[in-house]
Structures are given as C-alpha cells and as structure tokens.
Amino acid sequence: LTHGHHVNFSGQIYKSVSYLVNPDTELIDYDEVERLAHEHRPKLIIAGASAYSRTIDFARFGAIARSVGAIFLADIAHIAGLVAAGLHPTPVGHAPFITSTTHKTLRGPRGGLILCDAAYAEQLDRAIIPGCQGGPLMHTIAAKAVAFGLALEPSFAVYQRQIIKNAQALARSLQNLGYRIVAGGTDNHLLVVDLTSKEITGREAEVALERVGITASRSCIPYDKQKPWVTSGIRFGTPALTTRGMGEKEMTQIAHLIDETIQQYKHDALLRGIRQEVTKLAHHFPIKRARMVNKQVLHTQHLL
C-alpha cells in the first residue's frame, strides 16, 4: 500500500505505475519491469513487498533503474533479518536508498530505518527532521541498537535459517493437504495460500483462525477476483513460531490445525476443540524473556 497505491498518500501525491507478477509463474517479470521503466521513465523505482515469497533480484532492479536514470529504492521491511544473516541477496551496492522496519524478521522494536549512500545523507536527514518528523524517539532508538547488536550474533543466523526451514515445511505440509501455495512455495519467511478451491474467503479464514488462536492475515493472490478487503488467500509467517522454539515437526502439526479450522469454520463446537489443541501447543513452547546480566543481554533462540 505504501508503494503508490491510490488509498495511500504515496499514490495520491505521486504518479505511480505498478508492475505485476507473471500470471503463470507468479514471479516478478523483470523483462516487463524493464519495459515499463523505459516506457514511463520514472524518477524512482521501488522494489519490495509484503506478500512475495520468492527471492528478489536487487541487482537486476538496480541495473534497470540505472538504464533509465532513475533512483532505485529497496524496501526490505519483511526480509531485513534474512538479509542481515546473508540468507537473501542484499540491496546494498545496488540501491542508493534502503528502507526497512525494525520488527518482523529483524526481531526488534516497532520502528523503521532508512539507509542511503553518503551523497544523499544530508538531504535525507533534513527531509526527516525537520521535514516531516518532530522529536526522535530515544527509547525506540535504544531498542533498535539492542536489536542490531543481537543481529550480529551467530545465533541470529541460526534463527533466520530456521525461519526459512519452518516456512518451507509449513508450505509443504499445506500442499500435502491439498492447498495451492502462491508461486509454488517460499524462499523466505512467509507463504500465501490460495483458498479459491476451499469455498472460503481469506477474510473468513482469518476470522476463523483467530478464533482458534492462530494469527494470520488475509491476502490477495495474484490477479485476485475478490475485493482486497475480502481476498482469496491467507498469508502465514514463521518468525514468531521460530522465536518460540518450534521446528519443522510443529509446522506439520500447525498445518493440520489450519486445515481443520478451514474445513470446520462454520462449526463453533469444533473450533473450540481446535483452540484447545492450539493452546496446548503454545503452552509447550512458551515465550521466554531476555535476562540482563552485567548490562549485557543474554539471549537464546527463544528470545522475543
């Protein structure tokens, strides 16, 4: 929504042109991106998504931007932790501007960051303060520093690798239960499930799953025929589950709980039974708190 959609200020103040995924592969069509870039000659090209499960070719985007004299901005909000761990190609060196949240896979506080080439640093600082922001939130800045410190630890890369393993295990398990996964699977922390053959909308599935204690997000699928607030798909992510210490075995169990919920979403009594199973699983993998010793954060794979 923040990349030029008409309901967001970015689509109201600026003229935007969207590129789509290939209808057959559901992957970004880089040749089409290049064609559109040469046709429209944009000043800015943005790459980054909230529901794209495959690897993004930042090098190709950077080359396309340079070919038309555009600035390339990479938004890695969802995959920042994977990038930091070296498990997804980095946009550094290809994008003069990089934006990200500091939560999601980076597992820090709610917040954001902007990286840029040194040539733009002074302009960017002025654009933020006083351009559009007041006082800095020092407590959040401190929390970000802790998150960045944790991201430098070897255990962080272990955590990120397990996120991907869990997402792929969840995708495979749902496929084995008869669900179609958008783009055929996942390379990162998320997956989008096509529900068109299940006689349930994304919105209905989201509500039903919430009732049993499973948090998910309704999601459009490529070329969705449903309205965007209804959707034909549902999106799942594995960072929080991985933080709690769950592995591939639990992803199979969760897939079955998801399937049971979708099949029985109209039956309250059955949903209550499923919720009991979800609660039992969550209690088996409790959230563990970080402990402070000598002003150093002691952390494990279970840190949230």
Share in helix? 40-55%
Largest sheet: 4 strands, mixed
Radius of gyration: 21 Å
- Strand tally is 10
Instruction: Please give the alpha-carbon distance between the first and last residues.
Output: 27 Å
Structural class: alpha+beta
Task: Please indicate the percent range of residues in DSSP E strands (runs of 2 or more).
Answer: 5-15%
Shape: globular
Describe the strand arrangement of the main beta sheet, using strand numbers.
1-2-3-4
Series of secondary-structure elements, N-terminal to C-terminal: HHEHEHEEHHHEEHEEHHHEE
Nearest-integer average pLDDT: 93
**Unreliable parts:** 291-304
What is the number of helical segments per DSSP (H or I, 4+ residues)? 11
Brief characterization of the structure:
This protein has 304 residues and is α+β, with helices and mostly antiparallel strands. Helices cover 41% and strands 13% of the residues. It starts with 8 loop residues before the first helix and ends in a 6-residue tail after the last strand.
List keywords for this structure.
4-stranded mixed beta sheet, 10 strands, 304 residues, alpha+beta, globular
Mind explaining what this structure looks like?
It is a single chain. The longest helix is centred in the middle third of the chain and has 23 residues, at 154-176. Strands 1-2-3-4 form a four-stranded mixed sheet. The chain has helices spanning 9-13, 30-40, 58-67, 80-84, 121-128, 138-151, 154-176, 202-212, 239-243, 248-263, 268-284; strands at 44-47, 71-75, 97-101, 112-116, 180-181, 190-194, 217-219, 233-237, 291-293, 296-298. Strand 1 (44-47), helix 3 (58-67) and strand 2 form a beta-alpha-beta unit. It has 304 residues and is of the alpha+beta class.
